[in-house]
Each structure stands twice: as C-alpha cells, then as structure tokens.
Amino acid sequence: MYTFSSRLKMASFIMMIVGLLGIGIGFMSAPSTVEEAKAIVASHGDAHAEEASHEMVSGEGEHHAEGHDAAHDEHVLHQLQNKPWSALYVAAFFFFMIALGVLAFYAIQRASQSGWSPLLFRVMEGITSYLVPGGIVVFVILVLSVMHMNHLFVWMDADVVAHDHLLQGKAGYLNPTFFLVRAAVFLGGWILYREYSRKLSLKQDESDDDTNFKLNFRISAAFLVFYLISESMMSWDWIMSVDPHWFSTLFGWYVFASMFVSGITVIAMVTIYLKSKDYLPEVNNSHIHDLAKFMFGISIFWTYLWFSQFMLIWYSNIPEEVTYYVTRIQDYKLPFFGMVVMNFVLPLLLLMNSDFKRVNWFVILTGILILAGHYMDIYNMIMPSTVGDQWSIGIPEIGSVLFFAGLFIFWVFTALTKAPLQPKRNPFIEESRHFHY
Amino acid sequence: MASKVIHAYYNDDDVLMHAVKKVKGAKHHIEEVYCPFPVHGLDKAMGLAPTRIAITSFLYGCVGLSVAILMMNFIMIEDWPQDIGGKPSFSYLENMPAFVPIMFELTVFFAAHLMVITFYLRSRLWPFKKAENPDVRTTDDHFVMELAIHDNENELKNLLMDTGAVEINVSEK
C-alpha cells in the first residue's frame, strides 16, 4: 500500500493556497469600468494605444473616430474582465483533460487486453479519480458562464445572438440549456465508466474467477464508442464554441491528441515518481520505454493533426475560416509557434533515441516540456477568442495552474493510497511482470 | 585456413535462447545462428554489437528532407514560379506549408528505402546470391548454432547435447 508522503502533501497544499491567492489577485485586479481598463492598457504602454492615437492624428472624421474608440474601449474592458476567468478555465480544463486522456488510454488497454500494462492499472486508476473534482470544477465554470458571470462564450449572450444571423442558425444546438445537458451527460458517462471499471478492477483481485475481468473488457469496449463521440462533441462545446463562427471538422481529434499525450506523459511521470520511492518494484524500464514511445508517437500524431487543420485552412484561404489563424499568428506569434517547438520539435529530437526512453530523468524532463506545451495548446485555443490581444502569462494564469496542479496532485495521490499498487489477480499480470523489450 | 565447425540443431526458439546463453556462459565464441524467423533478444544473448542502422536511417532522413527542400525550391519557386492557392509570393518560406507533405514523404522515403538497401549491402545480400545457410531446414523449423572447433570437439559436443540440441554435425568449412 502506498502512503502519501507528508512532504508531497504539504507541497500540494502550498500550491493550492498560492494558486488561490493568484486567482484571487487576478479577479481583484480585473477592471470594472472602462476608465480602469484604459489605465491598465496605458500602463502597459503597448503598441495598441499608439495605434489608436495615430488614427486620431491622421484624422478621419473626429466624431467617427470617437465613436469607434468608445466601442473599442468597451471591448477591451470585456477582454480584461474575461482574463482571470479564461486563465481559470484553461487551467481547470487542462488538468481535467489529463485525467480524461488517461481514462481513454486505460480503456484502450482494457479493451485490447494488453499484456504489458496491467502493472500500471492502479496508477491510471489513481489519475482518473481526478475526473470527479476536475469535472465538477469545469461544470461549475460552464454553469457560471451560462449565468452570465463571465463572457467566455459569446453565443450565450442573447443580445449578440439577436444581431447575428449565423448564431441564430446554430441556436438549436448552441443554446444554454442543451449545452449544460450535454455537459452533464458527457461527464456522467465518463465518471460512471471510471467508477464502475475501478470497482470491477478491485473486485477482480478478491475473486476466484475472471468474470470481473471479462465484464471490464466489455464495458471498456463499449465505453470507447461513447468516449469517441462524447469527446468530439465536448471539444466543440467547451472549446470550439468560444469562436462560434469558426469550425474545423477534425477539431475533436486534435483535442483528443492533446489530452492523450498529456495523459500518457502524466502516467509516465507518476510511475517514475512512485518507483523512485521504492513502490511498484515489478515495473521495469521496459514499461517506461513503452510509455516514452507513446509520448513520442502521440506527440507526432498531435503535430499531424495540428498541421492538417492549419494547412487546409491556410490553403483554401476562406475568410471565415482563416481568421482563426490570422489572429493567432498576429497576436499570439510566440505562444503559437513556441507550442509547436515544445510539442513537436523537442519531443521528436529528445525522445528519438531508443536508449533515452529508458532514462528516468530524461523522460521526466521531456514530460514537463510536453505538459507545458499542451497547456500552451489549450491556452491558444481559448485565449484569442476571449481576451484577444490583451493576453499575458501573469499572476492569474500561473496562479490557476498552481491551484489545479496542487488539487490534482492531492487528489491523485490520495486515490493511490486507497488500494494496493499492484493488481493481484489480473490474468495478464504475469506477462506484465515479465514484460521485456 | 580450412577449419572444422560444429553445427548444433534445435527445434525450439526458447531452447535455442537458453543454449546460446549456456554456450556463452562457458566462454565459447558462437560463429553464427541460423533461424527460420527473427528470435527476439538473440543478438544480445550472442553478444553482438548493437546495430547502427538507426543512425544511418536518421542521416538518410536528413538527406531526404534536404532533397525535398531543394527540389521544391527549384521546381516551384525558382525554375517556374507557381501561384500557390492564390498566394503568389515567390518565396519558399511563405509557401512552406504547401511543401510540408512532400518534405515529410521524402524524409520517410529516403530513410526507409536507403535503410533497407544499407541492410542488404551490410548483410551481403543481392539477387541470385547463393544461400549461406548450412541446411535447408533452417528455412523451415530448425535453428542451427555454428561454433568453430579448436581441438575441443568432444567437449563442445557434450556441452551442446546438454543444451537440448536435437542433432549435432561436424563439417569442414
């Protein structure tokens, strides 16, 4: 049995407290009036303000420019008010998606009856336990959005829809009630599978036949069908709909690749951490090697989808589609291209060598890089639509990441203490123990 | 030097693996093992040096990437500038996304094909080459371990019989 070390527990609490402070400061310092917003923008002394004044000097109609400016100032105020919410939402979703990615990986291992992985099942089950708190937090943020506490989802604003023909056409799907019903169904389905599969997994240890194992196999295969559909729709609802005019048909796959590689990376990191504390004695470096191969392969898979989405839109150059990338390349150049380096170039070069995939500290180092890169990926999906060019990575963003990281660590490692780390009666446990590459 | 070799036959890959480990444990040099299919881990058990084919593959991939870049730059930008998707920029960098699939494909093409050709060259395989295996059964269901004899024929025979060989032949090479 694993015991949660007090040092790690302390670290997770400190992260949560510091994170909460950061989130609080983020909300306190968000402007509540146009004047405050102007002051914030001016204090940054960015090119934006200069541009606006240039416009004045070059003198179109004075009156015209003023009206434009007032609308613009209002817009900036909304962006700055959105900023702490977006920071919270990106971090909440990022840690939730790690658990969801691990759940998909776990279900695939179950459905494919893999021989190598049963030793890691308890680690995966521990990580997926975060689905409950993480899912609740994301759901609460969505409910608050529906209640107009923030303006993350512009289509929730009845005023906007009234003046937008396209959004009226989409209102049958994109309306607050149906949106929340879908979110509840998705979360309910994922959590139900997680809890039931975990129960069967624990029961298998105590039973004297394989009925639990077989049932687990069947529900995992069925779950994967549900997951594929629900994950894709979730990505349209929770992420793509922040840009309600824009659409991409492979978006669900793209988000899936991001959560899958982040999840696998966290499995590898937690496994290596537990091994360094002398738990999981049967896990050998071939298991780590396999996880690192998945990190390498899925990083390339992510890039493939990222690029497929980009190239088709770049090539066809249809205004309503290409605007998505124009804003990202104009206002988010560094995070947008930096993310490709972190998620593709560096994992490709660092994990290419077969021997490096067995070196624990190397896997951890690349893992941190991949996780940071996929945080940036989610950041790039949400921020351009919610805060526009007012983005920065400051106290609210780092605070949110720290808070959810602390919660994640606390919850996952608490769940790991609840059951023996090595399954006893999994029919493939012998194969997993002798796994050797 | 015409030397005598001993051929030990096995009909199971697990038995063969144990035999190889035992023979290596007794400090004998194994000349060669002929198998009907690749046996996982046999190279390590025989003490062969790790393969360097992955390094050549990486280098070939770099060559393929460079060829793709130079080729597309010449064809699409320099020799006969093309209007790509209504964006006639005449710049390689700005049209780069259109070339990525070609860069990727040629990298894979060069890496894979040249790696296979390298493998053939290194294993001295070419069309109409005469087979080197000592017995046709190694293409069916038998494994043959070959050891050189240095005035220790009986000792080797006993050792190999102990490892579960189904047949032992001594021949001139």
Secondary structure layout:
The complex is a heterodimer of chains A (437) and B (173).
Chain A: H1 6-28, H2 34-44, H3 47-58, H4 62-111, H5 121-128, H6 131-146, H7 158-162, H8 165-170, H9 176-206, H10 211-238, H11 251-276, H12 285-316, H13 319-331, H14 333-350, H15 360-386, H16 395-416, H17 429-433
Helix pairs in contact in A: 1-16, 2-4, 4-5, 4-6, 4-10, 4-11, 4-15, 4-16, 5-16, 6-9, 9-10, 10-11, 11-12, 11-15, 12-14, 12-15, 13-14, 14-15
Chain B: E1 4-10, H1 13-25, E2 30-34, H2 42-46, H3 53-79, H4 92-122, E3 143-148, H5 153-162, E4 167-172
Antiparallel strand pairs in B: 1-3, 1-4, 2-3
Helix pairs in contact in B: 3-4
Question: Roughly what fraction of the amino acids of chain B lie in strands?
Answer: 5-15%
- Helix count, DSSP H or I runs of 4 or more residues of chain B: 5
Major β-sheet of chain A, in short? Answer: none
Distance between the termini of chain B: 9 Å
Low-confidence runs of at least 5 consecutive residues of chain A: 47-62
Q: Which percent bin holds the helix content of chain A? A: over 70%
Apparent shape of chain A: globular
Low-confidence stretches of chain B: none
CATH fold description of the largest domain in chain B: Alpha-Beta Plaits
Distance between the termini of chain A: 28 Å
Descriptive account of the structure:
- The complex is a heterodimer of chains A (437) and B (173).
- Chain A has 437 residues and is mostly helical.
- Chain A has one domain (9-34, 77-424).
- In chain A, 76% of the residues lie in helices and 0% in strands.
- Chain A is built from 17 helices and no strands.
- In chain A, 43% of the residues are buried.
- The model of chain A is unreliable at 47-62 (pLDDT under 50).
- With 173 residues, chain B is an alpha+beta fold.
- Chain B folds into two domains: 4-46 and 142-172, Alpha-Beta Plaits; 53-122, no CATH class.
- In chain B, 50% of the residues lie in helices and 14% in strands.
- Chain B contains five helices and four strands, in the order βαβαααβαβ.
- Chain B has helices spanning 13-25, 42-46, 53-79, 92-122, 153-162, and strands spanning 4-10, 30-34, 143-148, 167-172.
- Chain B has a four-stranded antiparallel sheet with strand order 2-3-1-4, covered by helices on one side.
- The longest helix of chain B has 31 residues, at 92-122.
- Chain B is rod-shaped and about 80 Å long.
- Chain B starts with a strand and ends with a strand.
- The mean pLDDT of chain B is 90.
- Chains A and B meet through α12 of A and α4 of B.
